[in-house]
Amino acid sequence: MQSIEANGYQIFFNENGYEKINDFISEKKYSSIFIIVDEHTNEYCLSKFLPNLATEIPIEIIEIEAGEEIKTITTCVEIWSILSDLGADRKSVLINLGGGVITDIGGFIASTFKRGIDFINVPTTLLGMVDASIGGKNGVDLGNLKNQIGVINVPQMLLIDSDFLETLSQRELRSGLAEMLKHGLIYDKKYWEQFLDLSQIDFADFDTLIYRSIEIKNEIVKQDPTENGIRKALNFGHTLGHAIESHFLQSATPLLHGEAIAIGMILESYISKEKGLLSNEEFYQIKYIISTIYEPHDFSDEDIVSIQNLLIHDKKNEYGKVQFALINGIGKIIINQSVENELIINSFKDYKS
């Protein structure tokens, strides 16, 4: 597959990517290589990645626990200390081998250690490949508030190897699929329509769907790297979705990111319909397709109140007002939309109906 030119770095695919990463490391003459993994990628992915890394430069592996709850400043302090103890310097490079949590926290750690060292993202989950690792957003959570602390700083390069998807559960794959569905809904109606009948998808050629999803996000980010305008389109489903994810993060039934975003897309599609931006037919198509992929989630009245309260911490808020990105017909988006509390409550009522 042809590489994709992003803002200040390139995205490479599969076998070609390993050739490029080796050439790059050789050219940069790094003093040392540090690879951040979690317990899962250490077990299932590192053994595939390391044999493809052709270098004599010293390599150190740093393993952290898996899960969103580890994406904290405390974990950063621990890894900064490890890097320091192991002699990392300004000519070291950090390779983030894992899902969205690893690329988020790894990019933040690299961007801040010694005022910034190079990093490379190698996402191993579908969510990481089509969303989290692209665009330069790096950061950590603040308590149960997602991504409140962070920076925008791009990697030196990005390697997409779809073979890593074989290590994932069906639940993890569905989580990543939510972002692919979103890309179609906000940007490319024909791409969305490819998911209307999952039985017709040739998963042997799933790489082409991944490639197009990455293209869409990259095309949006290149227009607006710092999220002052059109990049806010990528937040469709995320205003309520992030609040839902945060609410259940510490519960006995936490949701994966994509599961929360899938619910958020149904809710925000309802809001789009009620504001006259989406036809009834389009809304029911969206609700039906997403509902066939993801199991419904129960919300008590107390859950909904808590989720509404969490909206005030959303990063897109301006002047104390919650800002939504809504779809203006499938394949189009409208940003900076205010939504009344009553309409939010009604969206949950419709979801539960």
TrEMBL record:
InterPro entries documented for this protein: Dehydroquinate_synthase (IPR050071), DHQ_synth_AroB (IPR016037), DHQ_synth_fam (IPR030963), DHQS/DOIS_N (IPR030960), DHQS_C (IPR056179)
Keywords (A to Z) from UniProt: Cobalt, Lyase, Metal-binding, NAD, Nucleotide-binding, Zinc
Natural source organism: Flavobacterium chungnamense
Biological function: Catalyzes the conversion of 3-deoxy-D-arabino-heptulosonate 7-phosphate (DAHP) to dehydroquinate (DHQ).
Protein known as: 3-dehydroquinate synthase
EC number: 4.2.3.4
Domain 3-dehydroquinate synthase C-terminal: 176-317
3-dehydroquinate synthase N-terminal domain: residues covered: 62-174
TM stretches of this protein: none
